[in-house]
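Field log, afternoon session.

UNIT: design team B
ACTIVITY: writing a sequence onto a fixed backbone
BACKBONE:
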């Protein structure tokens, strides 16, 4: 049986460079069914049993762009064995917004922090042990361009896929938000496996109507939405976005340090 690893990340994070490095000429390019979004998959160099699926570059798992919908429908319905989440280390705060969402899907995630060659030059440091602990997932530093640790990242994704252990999201929003998410989770039907409940509960709270096509039973969560909007005096989508950014900024404060003395030498 082959192992499927999905490559997910923001546009410009180096995903194509990594995909090419991992698959070489073993690539198949087509379109996602019904849409003109490019679909690329390839076999991992040296291990033909491992399929790398290159998802479209996206900033979020929201329903606003074709790319986001294609990527999340694939992740939800096809359920790859693991997600290799590539993040641009020079822009990590923005990239983690997607990462926190990927980790709610109940699929094992490993994070590859890319552009490490640039960080070495600027003197910025990402403390990957701390980052790994805060996110509850393995983290590896890579340079897709230079080929540094790219194969190691893929091998670790394969090992993770074989272990089949989904990450348990360690991040928590404020207790008030968590209580509402919990209440929605309890209303979800048996068609939603336990490890995916957080993802679907948050999507329902965000009033994401497109997600309903992925669910057999759709609970009425209008009471929970009203409660949350009254408590936070905002709309639920903005509340959840804000909760994510608060969590991400606490991670950045703890895990990233800038070196003010070193400057990027562009020559
Ligand atoms: C150009 N290190 C460095 N330094 N650059 C990297 C790395 C890395 O580890 N990984 C990727 N890049 P994509 P998406 C470019 O194309 O893979 C660079 O969108 C240029 N092009 O080389 O395309 C990579 O698939 C002219 O840069 O990302 C590429 O996720 C001048 O990041 C860019 C400078 O990589 C995006 C860069 C004509």
């Amino acid at each position: 049986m082959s192992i499927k690893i999905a490559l997910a990340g923001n546009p410009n994070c180096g995903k194509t460079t990594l995909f090419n490095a991992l698959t070489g000429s073993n690539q198949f390019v087509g379109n996602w069914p019904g849409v003109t979004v490019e679909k690329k998959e390839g076999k991992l160099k040296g291990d033909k049993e491992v399929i790398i699926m290159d998802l479209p570059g996206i900033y979020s798992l929201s329903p606003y762009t074709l790319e986001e919908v294609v990527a999340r429908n694939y992740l939800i319905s096809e359920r790859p064995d693991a997600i290799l989440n590539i993040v641009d280390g020079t822009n990590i705060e923005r990239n983690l917004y997607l990462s926190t969402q990927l980790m709610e899907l109940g699929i094992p995630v490993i994070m590859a922090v890319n552009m490490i060659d640039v960080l070495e030059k600027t003197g910025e440091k990402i403390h990957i042990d701390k980052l790994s602990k805060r996110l509850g997932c393995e983290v590896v530093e890579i340079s897709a361009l230079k080929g540094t640790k790219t194969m190691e990242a893929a091998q670790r994704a394969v090992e993770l896929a074989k272990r089949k252990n989904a990450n348990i999201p360690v991040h928590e929003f404020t207790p008030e938000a968590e209580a509402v998410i919990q209440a929605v989770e309890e209303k979800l039907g048996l068609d939603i496996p336990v490890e995916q409940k957080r993802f679907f509960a948050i999507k329902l709270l965000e009033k994401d109507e497109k997600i309903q096509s992925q669910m057999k039973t759709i609970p009425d969560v209008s009471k929970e939405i009203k409660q949350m909007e009254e408590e936070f005096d905002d709309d639920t989508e903005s509340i959840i976005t804000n909760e994510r950014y608060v969590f991400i900024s606490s991670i950045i404060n703890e895990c990233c340090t800038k070196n003010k003395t070193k400057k990027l030498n562009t020559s």
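LOG NOTE: The chain has a mean pLDDT of 93.
NEXT ACTIVITY: expression trials, pending approval
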